[in-house]
Design brief:
about 425 residues; mainly alpha; Growth Hormone, Chain: A; 2 domains; 20 helices; globular
C-alpha cells in the first residue's frame, strides 16, 4: 500500500468508475439509437410503419423534450447531493426506460408526447450523475484520462447502436428500436442495485433554494448570458441533424453512389451485400468523426485562443451546412456532415474552455454547470424553426437550397455576433 501511495500516477480506476462508464455507454447508445431515427418514424406514414404526424407537430415535441434534457441537470445535481446518487440513478433509469417502453406502444400524438417527456425527464436527471460520480472517483493523477474515457464511451454508444442495432431492428419493426432503448436503460437498474456504490459525498451539498439563488446570480451576469445566446445560435444548426437533415435525406436525396461504393467494399468480405445509407447513418458519421479525429483536433487547437478558435470552428460547421445548399450530390451530402462535425469538434471544447477561463475565479464550476443552457436555447428554437421552414420551403415550394441557406445565414450571424462580442465585450472583461 505504501508503494501505491508513493506513486499516485499509477492509481487504478475504481469499480464505480467502470460501472458508470458502462451506464453511460448503454444510456447514450439507447438515446442516440432512438434520436437517430425518431423524427423520421414520427412523420412516416402509417402504411410504412410510422405514426404519420405532421412535421410541425414533431417540431413541437423536439423543441420540448430536448431543452428539458439540458435544463433538468440543474436540479438533479443538487437532488443527488442531497438524497444520494444511487436513488437518483434508480429514479432516472426507471423513468427513462418506462418512457421508451411506452413510446414503443403509443400511437396517438398525446401519448407519444407524454411518453417522450418521461424519457426526457429520466435522461435529464441522468446527465450530471455520471460526470459527478467520475469527478468523485478520480483525482489529479487520473481525472483527465477518466473524463477522456467518459467522452469516448458517449461517442462509442452514439456510433455502435445506430450503426448495428437500429438498421436490424427497423427492418423488423420501428417499435423494436424503442424496446431496445427500454431494455438498454432498464437493465441499468440491476447494475445500479448490485454493483454501483454511493460515491464520497461532497463537503458542501447544495439545497434547492441555493440552486435557485445561483440561477438568479448567474443569469444576472449579462456577459455570460450574451455569450450563451450568441453561441446557442450555432446549436440551432446542430439540432437540424436530428430533424430536418433526416427528412431531407429520406425525401430528397439519392444515396445510390454512396451505397454502390460501400457495397463494393463490403463485397470483398460478404456475398451480395445490400447496405443502404439511411437516417441513422447521419448520427453515425458525426460520432465516428469525433472518435477518429477528436484527439488530433484537440491537439491542433490546444494552444490557440478560445474565442477566435470558436469562431473558426463555427465557420467550418457553417461551410459544411452550406454544402447541402449548393448540391444534392450524395457525396457532397456526406462531406457536408463530415465537415460540420469537424467544426463542432473545434468549437465546442473551446467554448467550455472560454467559460472556464472567463468565469469569476471562485465560481468557475458554477458557470461551467450552467454553460449547457446553450442546448436549451438551441434545441428549443431549432426544433420548431427547422420543422416550420422545412414544410414551407422544401415541401410546399421545393426550395431546399433556400432552406439550407437560411441556416447558413444563422451560422454567419453567429460568427458576426462572436466577432462583435470579442471586440467590444470579451476584451474588456480581460483587461
Amino acid at each position: 500500500m505504501s508503494q501505491h501511495l508513493s506513486n499516485p500516477t499509477k492509481k487504478k480506476f475504481s469499480r464505480n468508475f467502470w460501472t458508470v462508464i458502462w451506464m453511460e455507454f448503454f444510456e447514450r447508445g439507447s438515446y442516440y439509437g432512438v434520436m437517430s431515427v425518431l423524427s423520421v418514424y414520427l412523420v412516416l406514414s402509417v402504411t410504412e410503419g410510422g405514426l404519420g404526424f405532421s412535421k410541425e407537430s414533431v417540431g413541437v415535441i423536439k423543441s420540448t423534450i430536448t431543452p428539458l434534457i439540458y435544463l433538468l441537470p440543474i436540479l438533479s445535481g443538487a437532488l443527488a447531493d442531497r438524497f444520494g446518487y444511487r436513488k437518483m440513478l434508480f429514479f432516472s433509469f426507471v423513468v427513462m426506460s418506462t418512457g421508451y417502453a411506452l413510446t414503443s406502444i403509443s400511437t396517438s400524438y398525446e401519448l407519444v408526447f407524454l411518453s417522450l417527456l418521461l424519457m426526457a425527464v429520466g435522461a435529464g436527471f441522468f446527465k450530471p450523475l455520471i460526470s459527478g460520480t467520475i469527478a468523485r472517483e478520480t483525482d489529479e493523477s487520473n481525472s483527465s484520462l477518466g473524463f477522456g474515457i467518459f467522452y469516448w464511451s458517449i461517442n462509442m454508444g452514439a456510433f455502435l447502436f445506430p450503426l448495428i442495432l437500429v438498421p436490424y431492428l427497423k427492418a423488423l419493426s420501428w417499435n423494436y428500436i424503442f424496446i431496445m432503448a427500454a431494455v438498454g436503460t432498464g437493465w441499468l437498474v440491476i447494475l445500479n442495485f448490485f454493483v454501483y456504490r454511493e460515491p464520497p459525498k461532497p463537503k458542501n451539498s447544495k439545497t434547492l433554494p441555493q440552486v435557485f439563488k445561483e440561477i438568479i446570480m448567474v443569469l444576472g451576469d449579462y456577459r455570460f448570458v450574451l455569450m450563451l445566446v450568441i453561441y446557442s445560435c450555432f446549436w440551432i444548426l446542430y439540432f437540424q441533424m436530428f430533424d430536418s437533415v433526416l427528412w431531407y435525406l429520406k425525401e430528397k436525396m439519392d444515396m445510390t453512389p454512396v451505397n454502390s461504393v460501400v457495397n463494393h467494399f463490403l463485397g470483398w468480405f460478404v456475398s451480395n451485400p445490400s447496405w443502404k445509407f439511411d437516417a441513422e447513418h447521419v448520427t453515425v458519421i458525426n460520432a465516428l468523426t469525433i472518435i477518429i479525429l477528436q484527439l488530433f483536433i484537440s491537439a491542433l487547437v490546444k494552444k490557440k485562443p478560445a474565442l477566435p478558435t470558436m469562431i473558426f470552428g463555427i465557420s467550418i460547421a457553417t461551410l459544411g451546412m452550406a454544402l447541402l445548399a449548393v448540391s444534392m450530390n450524395a457525396w457532397v451530402f456526406v462531406a457536408g456532415l463530415f465537415i460540420f462535425s469537424i467544426g463542432e469538434m473545434v468549437a465546442h471544447p473551446k467554448f467550455l474552455s472560454y467559460i472556464g477561463l472567463t468565469a469569476p475565479p471562485d465560481k468557475k464550476a458554477l458557470y461551467l454547470g450552467y454553460s449547457f443552457l446553450y442546448g436549451v436555447i438551441g434545441s428549443g428554437v431549432g426544433g420548431i424553426l427547422g420543422a416550420t421552414l422545412y414544410v414551407s420551403l422544401v415541401e410546399k415550394n421545393d426550395k431546399p437550397a433556400l432552406f439550407w441557406l437560411i441556416f447558413v445565414a444563422i451560422g454567419i450571424m453567429t460568427i458576426i455576433g462572436l466577432l462583435i462580442y470579442d471586440r467590444f465585450i470579451a476584451r474588456r472583461t480581460n483587461t
